[in-house]
Amino acid sequence: MEALVSGDFASFMEQEAEQRRPGFWPPFGRLVAMIVSADTPEAADATARALGQEAPRLEGVQVLGPAPAPLAILRGRHRQRLLLRARRNIPVQPIMREWLSRVKPERGARVDVDIDPISFL
């Protein structure tokens, strides 16, 4: 933060890269954000738990969550979040397609997928 506050953008970017590279955070890795939303908290929780239990277990892939979404209730829908993090060289679309095929959302639940998200709200 000191580099950013002092206007030393190059140092800030270098420090950020050092922190992101080992954990394969972007731009050194890929992210997929999943938001489970439902009319009831029970349906959102059950669908998110099912996704968590069926999460891919692959080398270079990690699933975080489920956890309450930053905006846990939006437009009357209850929301949970999961995040898939993968090494840059791993194609995430086939992983997501296979993962989602194994889970049937609860009635009234929906799963939204955002590959390489820009926002986490």
TrEMBL record:
- Write the record's keywords in alphabetical order, separated by commas: ATP-binding, DNA-binding, Nucleotide-binding
Residues in a coiled coil are none
List, for all copies, the residue spans of the domain called Primosomal protein N C-terminal.
27-117
This protein is called Primosome assembly protein PriA
* InterPro entries recorded: PriA_C
GO BP terms: namely: DNA recombination; DNA replication initiation; double-strand break repair
Q: Which GO terms describe its molecular function?
A: 3'-5' DNA helicase activity; ATP binding; DNA binding
Name any one Pfam family assigned in the record.
Answer: PriA_C
In terms of PANTHER family, this protein maps to:
PRIMOSOMAL PROTEIN N (PTHR30580:SF0)
